[in-house]
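User: I'm putting together a teaching handout on how multi-component assemblies are represented. Below are the sequence lines for each component of a complex, exactly as they appear in our records. Could you produce the 3D structure of the whole assembly as structure tokens, so the students can see both representations side by side? Please keep the chain order the same as the input.
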Amino acid sequence: MLTHLKRMKQGNRPFSVFSFFIIIFLFISCSNKKNSGEGKIISKNEDALNSVLLSADSLITLPFVIERVNEIKTVLQLPRPVLLCKDRLDPNQSAAQLIALNDTVFTQFLKDPFSKQPLRNEIFGVYPARQSDMGAVKQPYNLSSCFRVEMYNYALNNTSIALVDVQQQKVLHSYYLANSQPDISAYLRGLAVKIAVESPEVQQALGIKPEEKNALMASTKTSLNRSRCERSRHLCVAPTFVKGDKALWAIVDLTDHRLVGVRWTNVGNSGPAAPMMTERRLQDDKITSCYCEVEQKLNRNGWSMNYMLTSSDGLRISDVRFNNKPVLRNAKLVDWHVSYSGTDGFGYSDAVGCPYFSQAAVVAWDIPKIAELKDEKNNAIGFVLEQTYRSEGWPTPCNYNYRQRFEFYNDGKFRVACASIGRGCGNMGTYRPVFRIAFAGEQNNFYQWRNAGGTGSEAGWQQWQKEKWNEQNSLSSFTAEGYQYKISNGQAGYYIEPGRGQFKDGGRGDFSFVYVTKNIPGREEGENDLPTIGPCCNNDYHQGPEKFIEPQPDDISNSSLVVWYVAQMKNDDRKGNEYCWAENVLENGIWKTKVYPCFAGPLFVPVN
Amino acid sequence: MKDSFSCSLLCAIFCLMFLASCKEEEIEFSSNNCKANPSFIQAMGFTPRNSFFSTSDERTMGLLLLESEQPGNPKARITKSLQHPSWRRAGWLAPILLDEAGNIYTAPAPFINILDNPIANNNTIYKIDSKTGLMDEFLRLPFADSINTDNPFGIIGMIYLCETATLYVSTVAGSRRYKEKGHIYAIDVKAKKIIDEINHTDAMGMGISYVTGQRKLYFGTGRNSAIYSVNLSAKGNFSGSPVEEFTLQDMGPRGDDKVRRITTDQYGNLTVHGIEFNFNLIAPREKQETLYKFSWNADEKKWVSLK
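Assistant: Of course. Below is the structure of the complete assembly, with chains in the same order as your input.
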């Protein structure tokens, strides 16, 4: 950060007449300013708790949306793939629109320059030009015959503008504005309102199905200059429905034709203006209010647990039981270590967690999802609890997308997993997620499988007496079932099956470091939220958990145990081999992200 | 009662001082442009004219001295770089301020994680001596009564008032989502002493301007997009309570930017550097910065946006 001290302008100030008031003012301000106390209390916003977020895959298919998508597909096949303005235009406006579409500058973004595939473009409006529009026009014109034609590019989120003189039948000036959206047409405004009105979430919030005329779009027109979806960089608007002294904001995505979410805000005639409701605020406020500040309970398929988002340890599950028998005290994702080179130690050590007031470098992007887990024959075999974390600019370079997943099976198995979905800062990256899994019970022992040795030693489980670590590599021993470790209290326990590409989720093997430490109450070894515990770029076992082992490992027999699991996934961007990767592809004229997750994490199988 | 009496007495004394120093309000145009080059730059073999300090290199923790082929051009080739071993001592750093003797003041700021920036050090000001180039602790600001791991930040902003040799430091240490516990401290650099403070304010970027005819400290907070001002006395103390001047709300590509930094030009216009800020450790490279320019409208007595 370069710092410059700037010159200040000279100012003279009259003084004497104010001295009396200054004395009084000082008396008042003195007591206010110096009061240190407990800090200023910021009130909680209950509306955030009751807001609704919709995931992209939960959208309902409305007939008029299908019609619109079909129209888009048809237009994209045309030589000049532009959706014309659907508002009522007079003959001059229609002519201006067509003249603009023959201008090379105005139409420079109709196709992707590399793939030559069409991008979705739409004329939003054709307006009589104002004198202020004509500043850059050098040639003579008659203002009354000039029009300003505005076209939006959904894929690139930019606006092309042409100033057209219909009398002269030519474009006088044309240019484009990056990251900018023109005012939407009346047709699109109507479409946004229709999507909002037809959405069950809006109807549920209002208690009735509102009429389209009840949506306040006109009064919010000035705020439509900026898209409400600053994260997805989609074109979004926010029809509002006023009910009493409250307004329901429905954020509608006109790029994907779906409702993003709804939230109530107070309306009033006085006081500070309510902050603008956007996609990011809606998501961050909801995640924080419901999952960062409150622990949620989950009971399903014989499993019970609490879960919540932490400041820097991802989604944490706790007090996990199966058929009411304790399984885990807690489990969480402490760090992501991302190393780009083994030689110069370049990379990042990212924590994942809550969006506000946290140590997270990559923040929760959506609310935790609970979904049914199915086998290859589509039989329900359990459920999944999953959390997504994302950088704002993903999938552009040096932005990240992580997924944390807990799988719970109906037969008592469970899996602690995660994935990187790229894209990171390069194609030489190794991702090392650090899991902390604290088992229930005070009398646990930890074992490692050993195959029969060449010297005549028998195969079997060997107990770890002291805290230690081990690496999963080509020399590692596994049982016939694929188990490498076992944790048990003598009566019950779990086999630990590391990922070796067998889980059919695209994972290519964990190559994990496993550490076992003793849980000693009062010792700060991760029962509470942990800051980042390891640097980005160590290639060996120095990933952080060894700090709780060295220099003097504790005895771990018949103890309360914590298993740390650090997988290692190397990314790949080669065509057909993509791994821990993501790339943008054109679909119906807009960019969609194709993902290549690299899942890793062990399966825990009950010892019978 | 005692407090009230002390306060009255203080105010009376202050008022007398104010009357006596009335003349000092006629401030020279260049009065807050006093920075001098540290003398160690030349001693280390660098050309002062082509050199600058940086704390924003993503691969090098701490302070760096760099020499460029074209100073001011961020894309120009760096011809020389140097890091004194003590400049890494405080972890990742953020603000850099120079005083009239060429001393540098800086403070730690976590970068992506707090591995090298323990929260307990985040309220410490460091000074690099102009002659020796050695970085050492300058002053530890009072730490919040409750350190919490939710908020990894401490000192965020710094600005120096040349006339009075006062360093203004904003810190948000100890603040939580529902409890605003930040401060702006006014520090007498020569006496190495806090002379005044504003409490319960999570101030971030700051700037000083005289354009309204008054010496004022402008600042934004991590809580909203408003820009506040507070008058500064001739001694550098705060005079009165902060008032809201204008806001960045609904402006720029995000509509809810917070103030990273405020600078002024020769006409007294304010340039506000706005970023997204939510008290988390999202990498700065992911944050787009937008510059907002404001000019003082003397007729309407308010700041107006220069679009």
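A couple of points students might notice: Chain B touches chain A through 94 residues (CB under 8 Å). Residues 141-306 of chain B form a domain with the Methylamine Dehydrogenase; Chain H fold (CATH 2.130.10.10).
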